Protein backbone atom coordinates (compact mmCIF):
# COMPACT_ATOMS: atom_id res chain seq x y z
CA UNK A 1 0.00 0.00 0.00
CA UNK A 2 1.11 3.54 -0.77
CA UNK A 3 -0.55 6.49 0.97
CA UNK A 4 -0.17 9.71 -1.03
CA UNK A 5 -0.12 12.81 1.18
CA UNK A 6 -0.37 16.46 0.19
CA UNK A 7 2.69 18.61 1.02
CA UNK A 8 2.54 21.72 3.19
CA UNK A 9 3.49 25.32 2.49
CA UNK A 10 5.36 25.39 5.82
CA UNK A 11 8.54 23.36 6.19
CA UNK A 12 11.01 22.75 8.98
CA UNK A 13 14.40 24.43 8.71
CA UNK A 14 17.75 22.70 8.71
CA UNK A 15 18.43 19.00 8.70
CA UNK A 16 21.31 16.65 9.41
CA UNK A 17 21.66 15.34 5.87
CA UNK A 18 24.06 16.50 3.20
CA UNK A 19 23.15 18.71 0.22
CA UNK A 20 20.42 17.68 -2.20
CA UNK A 21 21.30 14.57 -4.20
CA UNK A 22 18.59 13.74 -6.70
CA UNK A 23 19.97 10.22 -7.05
CA UNK A 24 19.05 9.61 -3.40
CA UNK A 25 15.36 10.21 -4.10
CA UNK A 26 12.74 7.63 -5.01
CA UNK A 27 11.22 7.62 -8.50
CA UNK A 28 14.52 8.39 -10.28
CA UNK A 29 12.74 8.71 -13.61
CA UNK A 30 11.56 12.12 -12.36
CA UNK A 31 15.10 13.43 -11.88
CA UNK A 32 15.46 15.25 -15.23
CA UNK A 33 12.40 17.40 -14.46
CA UNK A 34 13.39 17.77 -10.82
CA UNK A 35 16.79 19.10 -11.84
CA UNK A 36 15.23 21.48 -14.33
CA UNK A 37 12.86 22.91 -11.71
CA UNK A 38 15.49 23.18 -8.96
CA UNK A 39 17.84 25.03 -11.32
CA UNK A 40 15.00 27.31 -12.41
CA UNK A 41 14.06 28.15 -8.81
CA UNK A 42 17.66 28.91 -7.89
CA UNK A 43 18.01 31.15 -10.93
CA UNK A 44 14.69 32.87 -10.23
CA UNK A 45 15.73 33.59 -6.64
CA UNK A 46 18.31 36.08 -7.93
CA UNK A 47 15.37 38.34 -8.80
CA UNK A 48 13.50 38.74 -5.52
CA UNK A 49 10.50 40.72 -6.86
CA UNK A 50 10.03 38.20 -9.69
CA UNK A 51 10.29 35.32 -7.22
CA UNK A 52 7.71 36.85 -4.91
CA UNK A 53 5.32 37.36 -7.81
CA UNK A 54 5.78 33.86 -9.26
CA UNK A 55 5.43 32.16 -5.88
CA UNK A 56 2.51 34.31 -4.71
CA UNK A 57 4.43 35.66 -1.71
CA UNK A 58 4.48 39.01 0.09
CA UNK A 59 7.56 41.10 0.79
CA UNK A 60 7.53 39.79 4.35
CA UNK A 61 8.25 36.31 2.97
CA UNK A 62 11.57 37.08 1.30
CA UNK A 63 13.14 34.40 3.49
CA UNK A 64 11.32 31.84 1.33
CA UNK A 65 13.21 33.16 -1.70
CA UNK A 66 16.44 32.79 0.29
CA UNK A 67 15.55 29.14 0.86
CA UNK A 68 15.22 28.59 -2.86
CA UNK A 69 18.55 30.28 -3.52
CA UNK A 70 20.24 27.64 -1.34
CA UNK A 71 18.50 24.57 -2.76
CA UNK A 72 21.67 22.83 -3.95
CA UNK A 73 23.68 23.64 -0.82
CA UNK A 74 21.16 23.49 2.04
CA UNK A 75 21.05 20.53 4.45
CA UNK A 76 18.40 17.87 3.90
CA UNK A 77 16.13 15.78 6.08
CA UNK A 78 13.56 13.08 5.40
CA UNK A 79 10.37 14.33 3.75
CA UNK A 80 8.26 13.06 6.65
CA UNK A 81 10.10 15.46 8.96
CA UNK A 82 10.52 18.30 6.46
CA UNK A 83 6.83 19.06 6.01
CA UNK A 84 4.98 20.67 8.91
CA UNK A 85 1.48 22.03 9.59
CA UNK A 86 -1.90 20.64 10.56
CA UNK A 87 -1.80 17.34 8.67
CA UNK A 88 1.74 16.52 9.76
CA UNK A 89 1.03 17.49 13.37
CA UNK A 90 -1.90 15.05 13.32
CA UNK A 91 0.27 12.41 11.66
CA UNK A 92 2.65 12.67 14.60
CA UNK A 93 5.69 11.00 13.05
CA UNK A 94 7.90 12.27 15.88
CA UNK A 95 6.12 9.87 18.22
CA UNK A 96 6.45 6.80 15.98
CA UNK A 97 8.43 3.87 17.31
CA UNK A 98 11.38 2.56 15.33
CA UNK A 99 9.18 -0.20 13.89
CA UNK A 100 6.43 2.27 13.02
CA UNK A 101 8.90 4.58 11.28
CA UNK A 102 10.09 1.65 9.22
CA UNK A 103 6.53 0.83 8.16
CA UNK A 104 5.82 4.49 7.41
CA UNK A 105 8.92 4.66 5.23
CA UNK A 106 7.53 1.97 2.98
CA UNK A 107 3.94 3.21 2.91
CA UNK A 108 3.94 7.03 2.91
CA UNK A 109 4.76 9.36 0.04
CA UNK A 110 4.32 13.11 -0.31
CA UNK A 111 3.23 14.97 -3.42
CA UNK A 112 5.54 17.86 -4.26
CA UNK A 113 5.45 20.73 -6.72
CA UNK A 114 9.25 20.63 -6.89
CA UNK A 115 10.01 16.91 -6.72
CA UNK A 116 6.78 15.40 -8.08
CA UNK A 117 6.52 12.79 -5.35
CA UNK A 118 8.94 11.68 -2.65
CA UNK A 119 8.81 8.80 -0.19
CA UNK A 120 8.76 9.41 3.56
CA UNK A 121 12.50 9.07 4.16
CA UNK A 122 13.75 10.75 0.96
CA UNK A 123 16.20 13.54 1.97
CA UNK A 124 15.05 16.94 0.73
CA UNK A 125 15.87 20.59 1.58
CA UNK A 126 13.40 23.25 2.62
CA UNK A 127 11.91 25.01 -0.41
CA UNK A 128 8.99 27.11 -1.55
CA UNK A 129 6.96 26.15 -4.61
CA UNK A 130 3.24 25.49 -4.65
CA UNK A 131 1.27 23.24 -6.96
CA UNK A 132 -0.66 26.21 -8.31
CA UNK A 133 2.44 28.26 -9.12
CA UNK A 134 3.43 29.16 -12.67
CA UNK A 135 7.18 29.29 -13.24
CA UNK A 136 8.25 32.02 -15.69
CA UNK A 137 8.97 30.42 -19.03
CA UNK A 138 7.61 27.03 -17.97
CA UNK A 139 3.85 27.32 -17.88
CA UNK A 140 1.78 25.56 -15.25
CA UNK A 141 3.25 22.84 -13.06
CA UNK A 142 0.36 20.65 -14.06
CA UNK A 143 1.46 20.78 -17.70
CA UNK A 144 5.02 19.98 -16.65
CA UNK A 145 4.39 17.17 -14.21
CA UNK A 146 1.56 15.16 -15.75
CA UNK A 147 3.55 13.59 -18.62
CA UNK A 148 6.28 12.42 -16.22
CA UNK A 149 4.45 11.86 -12.96
CA UNK A 150 1.44 9.88 -14.15
CA UNK A 151 3.54 7.05 -15.65
CA UNK A 152 5.71 6.97 -12.51
CA UNK A 153 2.72 6.62 -10.19
CA UNK A 154 1.13 4.07 -12.51
CA UNK A 155 4.09 1.77 -11.81
CA UNK A 156 3.39 1.69 -8.06
CA UNK A 157 2.47 -1.83 -7.04
CA UNK A 158 -0.45 -2.54 -4.73
CA UNK A 159 -3.17 -0.31 -3.34
CA UNK A 160 -2.82 3.48 -3.51
CA UNK A 161 -4.72 5.63 -1.01
CA UNK A 162 -4.85 9.16 -2.38
CA UNK A 163 -5.15 11.83 0.33
CA UNK A 164 -3.83 14.68 -1.84
CA UNK A 165 -5.61 18.01 -2.06
CA UNK A 166 -7.18 19.02 -5.38
CA UNK A 167 -4.21 21.14 -6.47
CA UNK A 168 -1.78 18.24 -6.14
CA UNK A 169 -4.16 15.59 -7.42
CA UNK A 170 -4.29 17.67 -10.60
CA UNK A 171 -0.54 17.22 -11.14
CA UNK A 172 -1.06 13.53 -11.88
CA UNK A 173 -4.06 11.23 -11.97
CA UNK A 174 -3.82 7.83 -10.30
CA UNK A 175 -6.52 5.60 -11.83
CA UNK A 176 -7.75 3.02 -9.39
CA UNK A 177 -6.60 4.90 -6.29
CA UNK A 178 -8.79 4.93 -3.19
CA UNK A 179 -10.00 8.45 -2.40
CA UNK A 180 -11.19 9.73 0.97
CA UNK A 181 -13.74 12.48 1.56
CA UNK A 182 -13.92 13.98 5.06
CA UNK A 183 -17.55 14.72 5.94
CA UNK A 184 -19.77 15.70 8.83
CA UNK A 185 -23.38 14.69 9.38
CA UNK A 186 -26.11 16.96 10.75
CA UNK A 187 -29.14 15.94 12.80
CA UNK A 188 -31.14 15.19 9.65
CA UNK A 189 -28.51 12.79 8.37
CA UNK A 190 -27.32 15.12 5.62
CA UNK A 191 -23.58 15.05 5.02
CA UNK A 192 -21.31 17.83 3.85
CA UNK A 193 -17.61 18.06 3.14
CA UNK A 194 -15.42 19.26 6.01
CA UNK A 195 -12.94 21.95 5.07
CA UNK A 196 -11.53 23.40 8.30
CA UNK A 197 -10.38 20.16 9.97
CA UNK A 198 -9.93 18.17 6.76
CA UNK A 199 -6.15 18.03 7.05
CA UNK A 200 -6.15 16.92 10.68
CA UNK A 201 -8.46 13.99 10.03
CA UNK A 202 -6.47 12.91 6.99
CA UNK A 203 -3.32 13.10 9.08
CA UNK A 204 -4.84 10.76 11.68
CA UNK A 205 -5.95 8.32 8.99
CA UNK A 206 -2.49 8.41 7.39
CA UNK A 207 -0.92 7.66 10.78
CA UNK A 208 -3.19 4.67 11.28
CA UNK A 209 -2.40 3.29 7.83
CA UNK A 210 1.33 3.98 8.11
CA UNK A 211 1.82 2.30 11.48
CA UNK A 212 -0.66 -0.58 11.34
CA UNK A 213 0.86 -4.05 11.59
CA UNK A 214 -1.46 -5.09 8.79
CA UNK A 215 -0.82 -3.71 5.33
CA UNK A 216 -4.25 -3.46 3.65
CA UNK A 217 -4.56 -4.36 0.00
CA UNK A 218 -8.27 -3.58 -0.45
CA UNK A 219 -10.68 -0.72 0.22
CA UNK A 220 -12.38 -2.74 2.95
CA UNK A 221 -8.98 -3.41 4.48
CA UNK A 222 -8.33 0.34 4.71
CA UNK A 223 -11.70 0.78 6.43
CA UNK A 224 -10.86 -1.95 8.94
CA UNK A 225 -7.53 -0.35 9.86
CA UNK A 226 -9.29 3.00 10.31
CA UNK A 227 -12.00 1.46 12.50
CA UNK A 228 -9.39 -0.22 14.69
CA UNK A 229 -7.84 3.22 15.22
CA UNK A 230 -11.21 4.67 16.22
CA UNK A 231 -11.75 6.50 12.93
CA UNK A 232 -15.25 6.22 11.46
CA UNK A 233 -14.95 5.39 7.77
CA UNK A 234 -17.66 4.19 5.40
CA UNK A 235 -17.34 2.82 1.91
CA UNK A 236 -19.44 4.89 -0.50
CA UNK A 237 -18.21 3.60 -3.86
CA UNK A 238 -16.01 1.02 -5.51
CA UNK A 239 -12.90 2.99 -4.51
CA UNK A 240 -14.36 5.77 -2.41
CA UNK A 241 -14.46 6.22 1.36
CA UNK A 242 -16.05 8.83 3.58
CA UNK A 243 -14.40 9.68 6.88
CA UNK A 244 -17.23 10.70 9.19
CA UNK A 245 -16.47 13.38 11.79
CA UNK A 246 -18.59 14.72 14.59
CA UNK A 247 -20.60 17.85 13.85
UniProtKB/TrEMBL annotation:
It comes from the Bacteria. NCBIfam families: PRK02101.2-1 (NF002544). One of its GO terms (biological process) is response to hydroperoxide. PANTHER family: PEROXIDE STRESS RESISTANCE PROTEIN YAAA, PEROXIDE STRESS RESPONSE PROTEIN YAAA. This is Peroxide stress protein YaaA. InterPro entries: YaaA (IPR005583). The lineage of its organism: Bacteria, Bacillati, Actinomycetota, Actinomycetes, Pseudonocardiales. GO terms for cellular component: cytosol.
Amino acid sequence: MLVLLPPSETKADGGDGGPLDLDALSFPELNPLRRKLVDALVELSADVPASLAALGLSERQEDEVERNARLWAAPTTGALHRYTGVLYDALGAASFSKAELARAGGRLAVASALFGVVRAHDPIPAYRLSGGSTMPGFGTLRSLWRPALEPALAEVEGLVVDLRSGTYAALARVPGAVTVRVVTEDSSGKRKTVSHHNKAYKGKLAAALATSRSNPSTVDGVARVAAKAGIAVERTGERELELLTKA
